[in-house]
TrEMBL record:
Stored Pfam families: UvrD-helicase, UvrD_C_2
Organism: Lactiplantibacillus dongliensis
Claim: Nuclease is one of the keywords in the record: no
Stated name of the protein: RNA polymerase recycling motor HelD
This protein's UniProt keywords: ATP-binding, Helicase, Hydrolase, Nucleotide-binding
NCBIfam families: HelD_BACSU
Length: 769
C-alpha cells in the first residue's frame, strides 16, 4: 500500500518524464519554425522580386501574372504552415508548464487491465504513438467531467460507449511541479475549484478547463441541438461555458469548421476584450465577435443607429415609446406581419426610385415599376427583385454597347497612352480580335463600363428600392393590437420618418426594417456561419433574435442569459422565454440547460444578491467565505462622495481594481468628476475596448458580463431604485463583485434592500449631528 506522499512522488516522476519529452519536442518544433521562417522569407523575397519586374511588354505580362498567382499561393501556404508551427510551439510551452490536470483509471472489461489516462489542454503523443496526455475534448475525456466512479457512458464517434471508472484524480501542476493532488468521486471536486476561484484576477477571463462542472460540460459538448438555450444565474459560468464550447466544437468538427464560421454577439466592447485570451490559452483561434450595435450599424450604412445604451439613457428622462408599443413592435407577431406584408406586396406597390447618374435620371422609377409589373405575380419577392436587377443590367449593357460608339468615346480612345490601352485590354491580346473595329469597340465598351460603374453598382446593390419609404408604407398598414392607440401609432410612424430625415434610426425599427429589406431584395443572409452565440440574450428583443436568425439561416444557435439580469425590461420567467423562443425559432431540436450554482462571488455576496430576487432561492452559492456586503448611508451628496473616496482607498489596499458602478452615465460622470481630483480614476465609455487597473467608474450596462475584485455601487437610494422594476439592475450590480461589495446610498436606501434580512449585510450610518 503506497502512502499519499509516495503516490505524489510517483506522479511527480511521471510528470518529470512527460515534461522532458514535451520539452524535447518543443525544441524540435522551434527548429522547424526557424526553418519554416527561413523558407517563407525566401519565397516572399522571390515573390517581391518578380512582382516588380517590368511588366510592360504584354506577352510577358500574361505569363508573369500566372506565375505570380502561383507564387502568391506559395507565400500563403508558407505563411500558414509557419503559423501552424508557431501555434504548436505555444501549445507545447503551455504543456511543459502544466502537462495535465486530471487522471482517470478506466476498465472497459473486467478481463482487461485497467487503463490510466491523463487529461490536459492538448494531446501529447510520444514517438511510439502512446497518448501521454489526452486532449480534454477527446470523447473519453468527458468521463472525467461527467462521471462519478462506477459504470459510466460517453459519446464516441462510433456511438455510446461504456466503461468502468475506477479512479479520478485532479492535479494542480505549475512549472512542472505538482502543487496539489486529490482523488475525488465527484464530477470535479471542490478543493481544486476553491483554490482556482480564490486566486482569480479580473483583467482577463481565465479558461476553466480543469474544473468544468457537469452541467457546464453538457453545454460544452452539445452537438445535437439547433437551438441551445442556457438560463444561468449570475456568475454560473455561462460565458466560460460558451468559450469552452467554441474550443470544443473547433476540435470536434475540425475538418469542416473554421473559427471564423462562429460568431459571438457580446454585450459590449469591454467584454470582447475581457474574454479575448480564453481561446488562445486553449490553443485555438478566436471566433468573430460583434456587439448588436456594431452588427446593426454595419447594415445601416449612412444612418446612425441608436444603441441599447442610448435608449436606456434617454428613457431615464422620458421613454420615447410606450411599453405597449415596445411589446408589440419588438415581438414575434410584428416580424410575422413584416414577412406577410413582403410576401403579398404587389409589384406596383414597391417603392422604386429613379437611378440617377451625374444628376440625370438614368432609369426612371416608372421604367423599373413597369419591369416589376410585367413579371409573373406568383414570383417570390427575392426572385422578382433578382429578375428586375437582371433586366436592368441587360438594359444597361445595351446602353453601354450603344454609347461605346459615341464621339466622346472615340476621342478618348485616340488619346489613350499605350499603357492605358493595354490596361483596358485586360487579358485580351492585341490583334486577337476579328477586326480592328471589333478591338476599338471592345475598348470603347470598357471605357463606358468604367464610367457607368456607379449605375451598375446601384443596380447590383438594389439601391433603386427605397426601403425606408417601403417600411413607412408597411407601418401605415400595420394591424395594431388593442393596447396600442391610433394616436400613439401615428406618433411612432412620425418619429420614424423624422429620424430618417436626420439619418437616424431607432433601435425599435432596426430588426423589422432589415427583415423587410432582406425579404424584398433577397439579400443580407450569411450562409457560411455555422454557429452563433448570443451572450446576455435577455437584453435582446425577440424581434432582434429573429432577425439574427434570419440573417444566419444555417447557423446553430446557442443563446445564453439570465432573465434576472434584465436591465432594459422587466424580469421574465425562463420557461416563458423558452416557450416564446421555441415557437418563434421553429427548430426541431431545442434544448434548455439551467445553471443554478454561482461561482463568481463569495458566499456572502451571493447570498445578498440572491435575496434581492423574488425567486432567488434557486440560486446556490459556492462556499467561498468573505466579508459581508456593506451598506453605507450618507445624507447628502458631498458626504457620500467623501465616503466613496475613503472606501475606494480602503479597497485599493487589497485589490487591483475597484469598480464604482452607477445606474447611468450621468451618475458615473458625477462620481468621476469628484474622484479624479483625489485619486487616479478612469471613466469608461461605450467605445472603450480595454480596461485599466485601479479605480474605474462605469454605468452598470457597460459592466455586463464583467467581474471585479471589489465593487462599490454608488447611490443605491430609494430614489434610484424605487421598486421592483429596478431589481434586475441592482442584482446585476451586486453580482459583479467577486470578493468585496459596498453599497453606498445618498439618503434613504432602496426599499429593495431595506426589506432584506439584516444579517445579510452590515450597515455604516453617517452620524447626524
Ligand atoms: N467550472 C468553473 N471552474 C472555475 N471557475 C469557474 C467555473 N465556472 C465559472 N467560473 C468562474 O466564475 C466566474 C463567472 O463566470 P462567467 O462570467 O462565465 O459567468 P456568467 O454566468 O457568464 O456570469 P454573468 O451572467 O453574471 O455575467 C468567472 O470568474 C469564471 O472563471
Amino acid at each position: 500500500m503506497t502512502t499519499p506522499d509516495q503516490e505524489q512522488q510517483q506522479e511527480q516522476r511521471r510528470v518529470d518524464t512527460v515534461v522532458k519529452q514535451i520539452k524535447a519536442r518543443a525544441k524540435e518544433t522551434d527548429r522547424l519554425v526557424a526553418k519554416a521562417h527561413h523558407d517563407t522569407d525566401i519565397i516572399q523575397k522571390n515573390y517581391g522580386d518578380n512582382n516588380s519586374v517590368n511588366t510592360f511588354e504584354v506577352d510577358d505580362r500574361i505569363e508573369t501574372n500566372a506565375e505570380l498567382q502561383q507564387q502568391k499561393q506559395m507565400v500563403e501556404r508558407a505563411v500558414e504552415s509557419e503559423a501552424i508551427l508557431n501555434r504548436q510551439v505555444g501549445v507545447l510551452k503551455d504543456l511543459s508548464n502544466s502537462p495535465y490536470f486530471g487522471r482517470i483509471d478506466i476498465q472497459d472489461d473486467p478481463a482487461d487491465d485497467p487503463e490510466r489516462l491523463y487529461i490536459g489542454t492538448a494531446s501529447f503523443v510520444d514517438e511510439h504513438q502512446n497518448f501521454l496526455v489526452y486532449d480534454w475534448r477527446a470523447p473519453i475525456s468527458s468521463v472525467y467531467y461527467n462521471g462519478t466512479l462506477g459504470k459510466v457512458a460517453y459519446q464516441a464517434p462510433a456511438g455510446e460507449q461504456t466503461t468502468e471508472l475506477l479512479k479520478k484524480r485532479q492535479f494542480q501542476i505549475d512549472h512542472g511541479q505538482i502543487n496539489n493532488m486529490f482523488d475525488t468521486n465527484e464530477t470535479v471536486g471542490d478543493e481544486i475549484l476553491q483554490s482556482v476561484l480564490g486566486e482569480q484576477n479580473d483583467a482577463y477571463m481565465q479558461n476553466i478547463v480543469a474544473t468544468i462542472q457537469k452541467e457546464q460540460n453538457d453545454i460544452i459538448r452539445d452537438t445535437y441541438s439547433d437551438l441551445l438555450v442556457v438560463q444561468g444565474v449570475a456568475g454560473s459560468g455561462k460565458t466560460s461555458a460558451i468559450l469552452q464550447r467554441i474550443a470544443f466544437l473547433l476540435y470536434h468538427s475540425r475538418a469542416s469548421l473554421e473559427a471564423d464560421q462562429m460568431v459571438l454577439f457580446s454585450p459590449n466592447r469591454l467584454f470582447s476584450h475581457y474574454i479575448s485570451e480564453v481561446l488562445p490559452s486553449l490553443g485555438e483561434r478566436n471566433m468573430r465577435q460583434v456587439t448588436l450595435a456594431e452588427f446593426l450599424s454595419a447594415r445601416f450604412q449612412g444612418l446612425t443607429v441608436q444603441s441599447l445604451f442610448e435608449r436606456y439613457e434617454s428613457d431615464q428622462q422620458a421613454p420615447a415609446t410606450s411599453a405597449a408599443i415596445r411589446d408589440f413592435q419588438e415581438g414575434a407577431a410584428f416580424m410575422a406581419q413584416v414577412d406577410a406584408y413582403c410576401h403579398q406586396l404587389p409589384a406596383d406597390k414597391l417603392r422604386f426610385t429613379n437611378i440617377v447618374f451625374n444628376g440625370d435620371v438614368f432609369f426612371t422609377r416608372a421604367e423599373i415599376t413597369a419591369i416589376a409589373t410585367s413579371l409573373p405575380t406568383a414570383m417570390q419577392p427575392a426572385d422578382r427583385f433578382l429578375a428586375i436587377k437582371n433586366t436592368l443590367i441587360k438594359r444597361l449593357k445595351h446602353r453601354i454597347d450603344h454609347e461605346a460608339q459615341a464621339d466622346w468615346v472615340n476621342e478618348q480612345i485616340d488619346q489613350l497612352s499605350d499603357e492605358a490601352y493595354h490596361d483596358l485590354l485586360g487579358d485580351k491580346r492585341r490583334g486577337a480580335f476579328q477586326s480592328l473595329d471589333d478591338e476599338v469597340f471592345y475598348i470603347g465598351k470598357q471605357i463606358v463600363t468604367k464610367r457607368l460603374r456607379q449605375v451598375y453598382d446601384a443596380i447590383y446593390n438594389g439601391y433603386f428600392l427605397d426601403t425606408y419609404e417601403q417600411y413607412n408604407d408597411f407601418l401605415a398598414q400595420v394591424d395594431c393590437p388593442a393596447a396600442v392607440t391610433e394616436t400613439d401609432w401615428n406618433a411612432r410612424i412620425k418619429a420614424f420618418r423624422a429620424g430618417i430625415e436626420y439619418h437616424r434610426i431607432d433601435l425599435i425599427d432596426c430588426a423589422p426594417l432589415l427583415l423587410l429589406r432582406d425579404i424584398l431584395t433577397g439579400s443580407g443572409q450569411n450562409r457560411r456561419m455555422q454557429y452563433l452565440f448570443v451572450d446576455e440574450m435577455q437584453d435582446y428583443s425577440l424581434a432582434q433574435l429573429l432577425y439574427i436568425k434570419h440573417a444566419f439561416p444555417l447557423a446553430k444557435f446557442t443563446l445564453l442569459g439570465d432573465s434576472e439580469q434584465a436591465l432594459f425590461k422587466g424580469i421574465e420567467q425562463p420557461k416563458q422565454l423558452l416557450e416564446r423562443l421555441r415557437d418563434a425559432f421553429q427548430v426541431r431540436r431545442a434544448n434548455l440547460i439551467t445553471l443554478n450554482k454561482s461561482y463568481r462571488s463569495t458566499l456572502q455576496i451571493t447570498n445578498f444578491a440572491k435575496a434581492l430576487l423574488p425567486d432567488g432561492d434557486q440560486i446556490q452559492a459556492f462556499t467561498r467565505e468573505g466579508a459581508l456586503p456593506k451598506v453605507m448611508i450618507r445624507y447628502d451628496e458631498d458626504s457620500a462622495l467623501q465616503g466613496l473616496l475613503t472606501e475606494v482607498h480602503q479597497q485599493l489596499e487589497h485589490t487591483h481594481t475597484v469598480a464604482v458602478l452607477t445606474r447611468n452615465m450621468a451618475d458615473s460622470k458625477k462620481v468621476y468628476q469628484f474622484l479624479k481630483h483625489h485619486t487616479v480614476a478612469t471613466l469608461m465609455a461605450d467605445s472603450d475596448r480595454t480596461m485599466p487597473q485601479g479605480v474605474i467608474v462605469l454605468p452598470i450596462y457597460l459592466a455586463k458580463g464583467l467581474e471585479f475584485d471589489a465593487v462599490i455601487a454608488y447611490d443605491i437610494s430609494a430614489q434610484n431604485y424605487p421598486d421592483a422594476n429596478s431589481v434586475g439592475l441592482l442584482y446585476t450590480i451586486a453580482s459583479r463583485a467577486m470578493h468585496h461589495l459596498t453599497l453606498l446610498s445618498v439618503g434613504d436606501v432602496s426599499p429593495l434592500i431595506v426589506h432584506l434580512d439584516p444579517t445579510l449585510f452590515t450597515i455604516e450610518h453617517q452620524v447626524r449631528v
